[in-house]
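note to self — DONT lose this again. spent like an hour looking for the file last time. sequence + predicted structure for the chain T wanted, 197 res
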Amino acid sequence: MAKLDFWYSIGSTYSYLTVARMRDYARDHGLQVTWRPFDVRRIMMAQNNVPFRDKPIKTAYMWRDMERRAELFGLPINVPAPYPLPDLPLANKIAVLGMTEGWGEDYTIETYRRWFVDGKEAGSDPNLSDSLRAVGQDPVAVLARAAGEEGTALLTAETDEAEALGIFGSPSFVVGEELFWGDDRLDEAAAWAAKAG
């Protein structure tokens, strides 16, 4: 089976389009996908790369572009969504913790749906607690672990690996040593994975 690593950061707007369709896409394309949450903000700040802050024209384009793409994919969307997320690292600490226990994908899908459909920012309540309860987790217990040393260490390790791979944005797809950046590169990444497999 073709293999692909899906690197994303909760806090990335365009990642909603990938998160919302990745499971069906992977099934339909025969892909084995590993979901890899990381802290894109840390990497972007290190590169002095802040794509939308103080750029109202570009931001307006982003929201309309996302609306168009969501319509093409048949995805629900309600934009503008709350942005940027004040608790981006916490949202990703929870996701990476969940990946180690088997509920991270479900949490990611739930928190993105609440963010882009219900307008509730990821990483904060009520989204945080509601998303965790929806995937069978105790919000108080998970938050304590995610906000502590365990969550910090896990997210730091994943972000370090993303940085070492040359990842600079979210979503990104890695096939072997090949990097594909952006939701609009998913088809190319899948084709490369099929070729490599």
